[in-house]
User: Which sequence fits this backbone?
């Protein structure tokens, strides 16, 4: 008892000392986020209340196409690099709390429902690797082996789902797999083959009910009902191009930002300059909205009143805003060359826009469309705010 | 006007030959070269990786390109690959620019950004 008290007292003194010397001031992380500076292998830590960068973390490797998920306490960002690097960044100290290079070439990852497992989707060697979120030690690997000759597919569109499982698509194998990890047991893999040609990215509906993958090789999409253990993936929106020759796609759409607004989904068509509007219950097309060029992201404001759309090269200097109730485009913005990503503040009063070739982040009021702030960043790409920590499929 | 001497004819021929030669290998201006490298890293890079070592699309590093003839690489860039995500760049890039880009890819452009 006495020893415990002495330890406690010692701890208090130590904590006090640390507080006096090195530890950052007490603050929450709910209004923080990160901006990927992809050419420099660094990220900016940003504050969405003060509209400024509060730190830069370097040495994160090749961050082309990097993505980020957050620990459930919102303190740590897990940064997935193209070069297979997985870095755990402490938003409060600006330090790197852990870093491994776990594969040769990877695309992104997810964090489990319980926050304990980080999964990374790899292109080379193809498959998914799982790590403990506390110390990044390896837990398991699921190689994406398919066919008779043991080839491994590139893995895309990984998301965490209920029951602490993950779901992902196999680009080269035309498949969707789910994986469950029980302590000490081999990963339980469920495989769905023949879902459609070249699934290239996917999204989870915000309720975690449906996983929807885009198909590059076919005129349609595929949906998996995650609530029904016996469900097979089914095709939706078959023939949305209706036999027309698709237009060239100079950047693949991203499906993570697919918007679910009320009873409708807003999806970027591929090879057409349109958003598809889809009934959420039946997955039937109810409308399509002609837009400026090939859409890349179509992202709903958190209250889903608006959908913001950016575009592929060479039309990537433009953003269009769609008013959901009317279905009309209510605003054209030209932030500058190389608009790569948009991220809403947690309740959506502002959106942050990365303008790669201007080396700038613009902060735009979503009501007035005025630019209310601007932050210098080196070739910024993805923007990720900690509000993602508490959402499935982000 | 006397008939041109054979020397003149040869000189004229050489002039035409060298013009044709320079047209076939017309290098983009220095400014355009910078734009092309930027495009290569950032826009081609969205599928092939910022360092060109591959992503959803294959690696474009010299080792990976191997001994594929330049003409077929030029054709792939200009016309795309049917059924695959590689789009045709004809209309955004002219042939001389693509020939120049393929040359840079085959020799390797290092880590210059």
Assistant:
């Amino acid at each position: 008892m006495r020893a415990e008290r002495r330890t406690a007292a010692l701890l208090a003194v130590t904590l006090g000392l640390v507080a006096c010397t090195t530890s950052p001031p007490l603050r929450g992380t709910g209004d923080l986020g990160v901006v990927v500076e992809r050419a420099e292998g660094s990220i900016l830590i940003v504050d969405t209340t003060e509209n400024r960068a509060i730190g830069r973390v370097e040495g994160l490797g090749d961050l082309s196409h990097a993505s980020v998920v957050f620990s459930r306490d919102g303190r740590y960002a897990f940064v997935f690099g193209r070069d297979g690097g997985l870095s755990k960044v402490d938003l409060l100290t600006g330090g790197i709390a852990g870093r491994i290079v776990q594969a040769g070439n990877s695309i992104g990852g997810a964090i489990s429902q319980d926050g304990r497992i980080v999964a990374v989707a790899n292109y080379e060697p193809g498959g998914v690797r799982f790590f403990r979120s506390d110390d990044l030690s390896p837990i398991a690997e699921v190689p994406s082996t398919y066919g008779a000759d043991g080839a491994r597919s590139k893995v895309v569109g990984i998301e965490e789902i209920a029951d602490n499982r993950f779901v992902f698509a196999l680009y080269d194998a035309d498949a969707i797999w789910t994986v469950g990890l029980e302590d000490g047991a081999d990963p339980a893999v469920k495989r769905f083959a023949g879902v459609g040609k070249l699934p290239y990215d996917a999204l989870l509906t915000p309720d975690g009910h449906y996983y929807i993958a885009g198909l590059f090789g076919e005129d349609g999409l595929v949906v998996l009902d995650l609530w029904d253990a016996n469900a097979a993936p089914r095709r939706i929106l078959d023939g949305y191009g209706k036999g027309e020759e698709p237009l060239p796609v100079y950047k693949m759409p991203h499906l993570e930002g697919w918007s679910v607004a009320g009873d409708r989904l807003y999806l970027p068509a591929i090879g057409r300059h349109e958003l598809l509007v889809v009934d959420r219950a039946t997955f039937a097309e109810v409308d399509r909205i002609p837009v400026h060029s090939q859409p890349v992201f179509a992202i709903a404001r958190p209250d889903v009143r608006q959908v913001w759309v950016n575009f592929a090269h060479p039309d990537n200097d433009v953003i269009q805003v769609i008013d959901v109730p009317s279905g009309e485009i209510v605003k054209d913005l030209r932030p500058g060359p190389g608009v790569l990503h948009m991220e809403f503040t947690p309740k959506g009063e502002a959106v942050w826009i990365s303008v790669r070739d201007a080396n700038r982040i613009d902060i735009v009021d979503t009501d007035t469309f005025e630019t209310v702030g601007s932050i210098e960043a080196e070739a910024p790409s993805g923007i990720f705010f900690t509000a993602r920590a508490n959402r499935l499929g982000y | 006007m006397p008939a041109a001497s054979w020397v003149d004819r040869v000189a004229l021929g050489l002039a035409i030959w060298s013009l044709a030669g320079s047209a076939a290998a017309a290098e983009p201006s220095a400014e355009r070269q910078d734009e092309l490298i930027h495009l290569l890293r950032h826009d081609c890079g969205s599928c092939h990786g910022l360092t060109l070592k591959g992503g959803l699309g294959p690696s474009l590093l010299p080792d990976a390109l191997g001994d594929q003839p330049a003409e077929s690489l030029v054709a792939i860039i200009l016309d795309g690959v049917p059924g695959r995500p590689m789009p045709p760049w004809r209309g955004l890039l002219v042939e001389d620019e693509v020939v120049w880009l393929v040359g840079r890819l085959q020799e390797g452009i290092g880590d210059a950004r």
Remarks:
- The CA atoms of residues 33 and 77 of chain B lie 17 Å apart.
- Helices of chain B lie at 6-24, 30-48, 62-65, 70-79, 95-107.
- Residues 13-23 of chain B have pLDDT under 50 and may be disordered.
- Residues 6-24 of chain B form the longest helix (19 residues).
